[in-house]
Amino acid sequence: MLRFLSLSLCVLTLSFGLLQAQQISGRITDGQTQEPLVGVSVRLAGSTTGTVTDAKGYFNLPHQETTATLEVRYIGYETMTLNWREGQNLQVNLKPDYLNLNEITVVGYDANQTLLKTPGSLGLVTERDIARADKTSLSQLMNHIPGVQARGSNTLRPATISIRGMGARGPGGSGRIKIYLNDLMLTNPDGSNAWEDIDPYTIGRMEVIKGPASSIYGASIGGVININTQSTPFQERSVETFGMVGSFDTYRYGATARFSNESTNLMLTYGTQATQGFREFSPEERNFLTFLGTFTASERQTLTLFVNRNRYASRAPGALTAEQAAENPRQALASQVMFNAGRDITFTRLGLSSEYRLAPRWSNTTSITGSFSDLDHPVARIYIYNWIQNFGGRTRFRYDGNLGAMPMRLTFGAEAQVGVNRLNFYGNASGRPNAVAIGDRVSNTRNVVTFAQAEIDLTERLLLSLGASANFYLYRYTEFTRPSPEEQVREFDPFYAPRLGLNYRINERHALHANVSRGFTPPAVGDINQPDGTVNIGLNPETAWSFELGARGSWLNGRLSYDIAAFRMDLNNEILQRTPAVGFTIRENAGSTRYNGFEGLVSWNIVQAPEQWLSLARVYASYTYLDAQFVEFVENPAVGVEVSANGNTVPGNAPHRLFSGMELNTRPGFYAYATYEWVDTTPINNLNTLSNSSFGLLGAKIGWTRTLGQFVLDVHVGGNNLTDEIYSDSPALNPNAIAQGPLAGQVPFLNLNWGRNYYTGLSLKYKF
C-alpha cells in the first residue's frame, strides 16, 4: 500500500508539473519577404532541447522556466540569439546572410522555395547590392543581374527596366513588366509602371523573375519584380538620421524611426533629395515620406499597412545630336528652356494586406491598393495636365499538403484593377498653359486576372510546376473637346497564359531547371495616347511564347556559386517607339520578332571568415548575350516608302553586356566596393543605320561602419563614372532627322548621363 501511495504521489506530482510547464511559441519569417520559413532550428541555448518550424513557420517548445534564451539557426540566414519571457509570443524576422545565394528563400512563383529549388530564372537584389550604391536612383541597383538592364534618364523621366529585351522602349517605356511591393500592386491597370515614387533608401530586397510570368501574375511578358521594403530587426527600437552631398550640388538628408516587438513592426522614413544635375536646365527635387507597419492581429492573422507620399519636380534639357554632345555635353536645348519642359508630380500610394491562417495547411493573402498622381508636364508647344487614380485588389489561397504521397503546394486566386486617367492638353506659351484647352480626354481601364498553380515534388529531386491564368482587359476613351463627347471602347479577347516548369536537383549543391510559358502585354494608355492629342486605339497587345533551360549551383561549400540560362522568345505585335519629330513620340506594332539569349552569373567568396581581420573578400561577374531580331516587319519611314527590317536588330537592345564587381569587409568595420559595367554598341533605329556607342562605367565606394555603445555609425565616400565617359544609356529610339535649321540632317537622340561625380555620406543610428 505504501508503495502504491508513493507511486500515485509521483504521478500526481509529475502531472501537476506538466500542467505548469511553459510553452515557448512563435513564428519565424524571412526578414525581407515576410514569408514563413520551414524547418528552422529553435533550440534552448546551451542544451540539445529544441524543435523546428512547421510549413507556416510556427513552432512550439515546452519549457519549465518563465524565461529562456533561444538560438535560432537556418541555412542561408544569420544565426540569432534572443530572449523569451513568460506569456510572450515570438514573431521573429530572420535575416538572410546573402553569401550563399542558392540557399536564400525566394517568393518566385509564390512557391516559397530556396533559389536552388526554383523552376525558373530569377535574379536577386540583396542588401549588399543596395549598400554599394549611393541610393539616389532605383536604376543603380539591378544591372548586376544578367538579362536585366535598368536605365536612368538625365531627362529625369522614370527609369526604364529591360528584362531580356522586354521594356527597352526608351525612357518612360511601359508595360511588359509587373511590379509589386510587399505584395501590393505598383503596376497600373493598363500594365504601365510608374515606380519613381519608391525611395531606394527604404528597399530591403528585390526579386526579378525573368521571362513571361503571366501564369500567376497576369500581363508580364518580360517578367516580374517583387520589391520588399526594409523590415525592422526583431526587438529593435531606433532612430536614424542620414545625409549625403555630392557633385553637381547634389544633396540628400532625412530620418528613419524603427520599432519592433513580438506583435508590431514599424518603419517611418522622411527625407529630401535634390540636385542641379549634370546638364544645364536639369534640376531635380524630391520629397518623400514612407510608412510601413506590420501588425500581428492574432496567432492566425497578420496585417500590413503601407503609405507613401512623394513630391517630385524636374526639368528636361532635351536630346542632343552627336555634334552637340561633342561640342558641349552639358548644354540644354534652348527650346526646352523656353517651354520650361519638365515634370512636376505628386504621388500618393496606399496599401493594406492581410495574411490569414485558415487552417494548418490553408492560408490566404489579400491586399488592396490605391494610388493617385497629379502631374504638370510642359513639353515643346504643349502643356499637359494628367490626373491618375488607380484601385485594385489581389487575393490568393495557398494549400501546403500532399497529392497522394507527393508533397504539393497549390496556389489560386484573382487580381482586379480599375483606373481613371484624365489628360488635359493646352498650348505651351513660354512655359505656361494657354487659357483654352485643345484636348480633354478620360481613359478608363479595367483588368481582371484569375490564376492557379500547383507545385508537386514528383520525387525527392524532381519538382513539377504547372500554372495558368485567364486575363481580361478593357479600355474606354471619352473625348470631351469635340462638339459632343465621343467615346471609343476597346475590349481585348480573353488571353490564356499557361506555364510548365521543372526543377531537377542533381545533388544538394546543383540543379537544372526548364520552363515553357506564354505571356502577353496590352498597350498602355501612354502607348495609345499620342502627344498631339490623338488616339491610336488600334494598337494590338503583344503576345509571346518563351522557352528556357538553365542550371545553378555551387562548389567549395557554397563559396563559389553560378547561375546560367539560355532562352528563346517568339514575340508577335511588339510595340515599338518612333520619334518622328523632336519631343514627339508615338508607338506602333511591329510584325514578329525573336529574342535569343544567354545569361551567366558567377560569384566567389574568396575569403569568408567572420573572425579574421579580413572577414570577406568577394568577386562576381555577370554576362548577357542578346540576339533580338525582326523576323517579319516592314517599316514606313516616309509617305509612299516601305523598307523591310527583316533580320535587323530590334532597336534599344545591346548584343553584349558585362557587369563585374568586388567587395571587401573587415572586422573593424572598414568596407570597399568596386564595379565595372560595359554595354555594347546598340542600334537605335529599325533600319540599324544609327547606333548608340558602347560605354563602360567604373564605380567605387569605401566606408567604415561601427557600433559604438547604443550608436551605429556609417560614413562613406564614393564615385560614379570615374573614367568620365560621355555616354547615353537611354537614347531616343527611332528618331527622325531635323528637317531644317543649322543642324539639318543631324539626329538628336542622346540623353546624356552624368559625367564623373563624387559623393560622401553619413548615417547615425541610436538604439534605445
Overview of the molecule:
This protein has 768 residues and is mainly beta. The protein folds into three domains: 15-94, Carboxypeptidase-like, regulatory domain (Immunoglobulin-like, Sandwich); 101-224, Beta Complex (Ferric Hydroxamate Uptake Protein, Chain A, domain 1); 225-767, Maltoporin, Chain A (Beta Barrel), CATH 2.40.170. It contains six helices and 45 strands. The strands form nine sheets. It has a 22-stranded antiparallel beta barrel. It has a five-stranded mixed β-sheet with strand order 10-15-16-13-14. A hairpin with a 4-residue loop joins β29 (495-505) and β30. The protein is globular and about 85 Å long. The relative contact order is 0.11. The model is unreliable at 11-20 and 738-745 (pLDDT under 50).
CATH homologous superfamily of the largest domain - what is it?
A: TonB-dependent receptor, beta-barrel domain
Report the β-strand fraction as a percent range: over 45%
The CATH C-level class name of the largest domain: Mainly Beta
Q: Looking at the structure, what is the overall shape?
A: globular
β-strand number: 45
In oligomeric terms, what are we looking at?
single chain
**How much helix, percentage-wise, in residues?**
under 10%
CATH topology of the largest domain: Maltoporin, Chain A
* Secondary-structure class: mainly beta
* Number of helical stretches of at least 4 residues: 6
Give the CA-CA distance, first to last residue. 62 Å
Largest sheet: 22 strands, antiparallel, barrel
